[in-house]
Amino acid sequence: MRHWILAGLISGLAFTTAQADWTPDIEAWNSPQPEQPDAVLIRNATIWTATDKGILENHDLLIRNGRIDRIGSGLSAPRGAIEIDAEGHHVTPGIIDGHSHAAILGGVNEATRISTADVRIRDVIDSESINIYRQLAGGVTTINLLHGSANAIGGQMSVIKMRWGASPAELVFDAAPEGIKFALGENPKQSNWQASELRYPQTRHGVEQIIRDKFQQAADYRQAMDSFPSGRAARDRVPPRPNHELEAIAEILNSERDVHSHAYRADEMLALMRLAEQFDFVIKTFQHVLEGYKIAPRMAEHGAGGSTFIDWWAFKYEAIDGTGFNPALMHQSGVLTALHSDNPELARRMNLEAAKAVRYGGVDEHDALKMVTAWAADQLGVGDRIGRLAPGMDADLVIWTAHPLSTRALVDQTWVDGRRYFDREADQRMREKLEAERAELMARVLDSNGDNANGNDGDGQDSAPERRRVHSFATHLTGYRQSELDHDEFCIFHDH
Amino acid sequence: MRFLSVILLCAAASVAVSAELRQPAPGAHALVDVRIVLEPGRVIESGTVVIRDGVIEAVGANVTPPADARLHTFERAEGQDPITVFPGLIDPYYPVSIKKDDDNGETPPGRHELINPDRQLTAGDWPADRVAELRRAGFTTALMVADDGLLRGSGMLANLGEHGLSNNLLNPQFGQVASFDGRSSNRQFPGSLMGAVALMRQTFADAQWQATARAAWQRNPAQARPEWLEGVDALAPALAGQTPLIFESQDLLDTLRILEFIEPGDINLVMVGHGAEYQRLGAFGNRRIPHILPLDFPDAPDVRDENDRNVSLEMLRRWDRAPNNPRQLAEAGIPLMFTSHGLSSPNQIFANLVKAIERGLDADLALASLTTAPADWLGLGDRAGRIRSGAMANLLVVEGDLLVESPSISQVWVDGKQYVLAAIVPPAIDPAGTWDLVLGLGGMGDVEAQLVLSGPVSRMEGTLSVMGNDTPLTEVRVSGERVIATIDASRFGGSGTISIRLDVEGDRARGNGSGPFGEFTVRGRRSAGPDEEESI
């Protein structure tokens, strides 16, 4: 991996001068929080509830103080309510992406150890990432920020709401249960790493064994902690040394922390489920899970969800048995099924990923939408707060200009917590304001360039954090800071 | 000790030799008839400062110099700026690279290469060249800190005189320095930012555990002995708030991360800022975390050519707003100190201070942030940062004002020892005219330049032409037979200022210069007098 990163840095340098200035005009820190109106009434929409109420045509949806209050027809607007005529428009729950690295700083992988349960994505959330705004424009309202897949036991995940402009702490969706990334297969066993960087284990059964070892250590650790006396009896006893890694793993064993495990192949997923059953807990989801269709009944029996790509496969050997029918087949076998992006660009078009589940395997349209809303929420343990349009749920929703599974559908508005974070029309107006701001600042810079007496401009600090395009094979990734690209370097070279 | 006395003898001898014969006491000096800024906002328009044995003995408008003091008087011509004495500046965060004994050595069990709270700077780490550079910029005291790792050890507080640490040490242990900007070598943990945070969190827990575990085992040794983590005990004073935890922040999100990591409580948190605090000032809430701020404002992008205007709005905003940062932090109630850290040369701090003051930062507060504020924070409130009797004789003698783009600091006094930067001498020559110069840039070869000087000797102006590029001089001064000129370096694609010193003898001149690119030599001759300017 090292020489790849080096190559990345070198090509990065080459790009720096040419592309360093390509950055988005909007920035999170000076984007004010949209107001939360007391009441919002969306009228005459086709409402995809993602509940057993189905798709309701010509219905109204009332938001009060950030929550959905009522859904019905002919609802009357409370005094002072904002009214939106959504005739001809579709309203769906906000899209939930259960596998994202889109707003993580300083490396997506702590790839130095086989288990890094002590590292927390929570510490490195990038509230300033343009991905947040871009994905809002694609209807995404919640994402699960996951550690990378370099380690059998990765870091602690963080579920965030796309509250563009908020600080990292404010982005965190505090209703979400704790979770952790696991990984099986080629990445943790270092199939595609440099030979000079060998690390135990190097095989799939070694991966299973190290996870088993860590579980046992964590169980022992928890027991030592629990049996340590308290109060006066503890005074002259040496307490066990705190260990944040084993602490987090012990939470898994106590079902206080959900496991979301990267996996492609059926055999190793079976092995992890067996291991979890021996330790008496349930694997919450398998991520990517390309061979899920082979073992779907077993997954359903265990209670593991499957969060998958719909049509990414064969990008490496262990991904060779993928099929677009996988979501449909898992769903038919009773697996809680969702679709994820694992990619900041794909994340903006998750409605079309859902549409593909209709195309491959004939999933019902409403169920297909649930794969990026309700069921994704259930996999993250927040199905009672988001992912569905029903009274009491958070007002996280999208107004589409057309049928949401259509390639012609555009996001007209995206609401999070009853706040309008994206509005196509407001976005257009904002562009004019930004042009004016640029003109004003440019005039001031020109003035300073011409100011001979006082032309000294300090001491050479770069005006902006370095941003650049990523390598030629991914030139569509523009406007990212270097820190945001660390992931892509790993991910692209390691095929996720 | 013997070594020290030899040094002291030498120092004393050199003062004695250079002093005039009537001076009986080598350690006694009086700066007479000078303007004195006692501290920000307190000025004596004409007074005397008496120094004895490195300490200020007396200061005031009506102080009579003692008979045994060497008198320092300054001749001023009509209309010239007054000579003003300021307290020496204090840099509260001065990172120093530590020499590692065994770079190839394995880290022993119980240690981590990035966790060194027990580290102290030693005499061998003394950065003599950089100390001289700091001193030339008017700094007389600094808190030196190690520049690598996550927990970097305690700072070392010292004056910035000559003769190394032994002659300058004030406090060998002040504060504990931390940063999340550390990654292990050789692919060891941590290799990412989140790993660095996790390691810091584990270390804090370990430090607390070790204190309890060791104590319990000492009371009751008849049980398994706890493993011993070397170094973490040194974290205890910072965790208990007995000494500040000085956390260097890399950027805006790092600041938010640190605020969250160090919850309000016992720890006495002081942050080294990054300059973009204004972006999320609300993050501080009512936590008035003192800040040590660098002043490296972004350069203006050069957009004179229309093809160069593809500059991001983000960059324009940062250029526009960064100079507001100190004022905005002050308005938010954040206690401020300034550091030269982050500048290519410490004397570049003044131009940015001027800019911050133009953007509304109170000038007294700006001076306080370099004098009284760091002095008080460092526990030197009665000994540094102010001119008062009993304080260390750390002083600046300045022609005119200090808080200008390129102040004329003529003398720096450290512990009562005088360092002359530029002798204050009335002009003895008239250098007006056109000078053909050769700038010797060392390995880069020679460059021809033309310097045109005009106007009366006390108020000269001029331009420097290099490779067809005419650049106005920011300032020209004539002192004795020397011409001192400063130029805005951004004209040459650099930043800060370039200064040139020329010793003139008739129509010949030679000297040297320095700028952001390094030092260079200058030599040349006058090719035309002032009245022949048109013929060029």
Describe this structure in words.
The complex is a heterodimer of chains A (496) and B (536). Chain A has 496 residues and is an alpha/beta fold. Chain A has 2 domains: 132 residues, Urease, subunit C, domain 1 (Roll); 289 residues, Metal-dependent hydrolases (TIM Barrel, Alpha-Beta Barrel), CATH 3.20.20.140. Chain A has 13 helices and 19 strands. In chain A, α4 crosses α5 and α4 packs parallel to α6. The longest helix of chain A is centred in the C-terminal third of the chain and has 27 residues. Chain B folds into 3 domains: 66 residues; 229 residues, TIM Barrel (Alpha-Beta Barrel), CATH 3.20.20; 103 residues, Beta Barrel (Lipocalin). In chain B, strands 1, 2, 3, 4, 5, 14, 15 and 16 form an 8-stranded mixed sheet that branches. Chain B has an 8-stranded mixed sheet with strand order 6-7-8-9-10-11-12-13. An 8-stranded antiparallel beta barrel of chain B has the order 17-18-19-20-21-22-23-24. Chain B has 11 helices and 24 strands. Chain B is an alpha+beta fold. Helix content of chain B is 21%, strand content 32%. Classes of the chains: A alpha/beta (496), B alpha+beta (536). At the A-B interface, α12 of A face α4, α6, α7 and α9 of B.
Short description:
The complex is a heterodimer of chains A (496) and B (536). Chain A is an alpha/beta fold.
Q: Which whole number gives the mean pLDDT of chain A?
A: 89
Quick one: how many beta strands of chain A?
Answer: 19
- At the fourth CATH level, what is the homologous superfamily of the largest domain in chain A? Metal-dependent hydrolases
CATH architecture type of the largest domain in chain A: Alpha-Beta Barrel
The proportion of residues in beta strands of chain A is: 15-25%
Helix/strand class of chain A: alpha/beta
**Discrete helix count of chain A:** 13
- Spans where pLDDT lies below 50 across 5 or more residues of chain A: 1-21, 452-476, 487-496
Largest sheet of chain B: 8 strands, mixed
CATH topology of the largest domain in chain B: TIM Barrel
Fraction of residues in H or I helices of chain A = 25-40%
CATH class of the largest domain in chain B: Alpha Beta
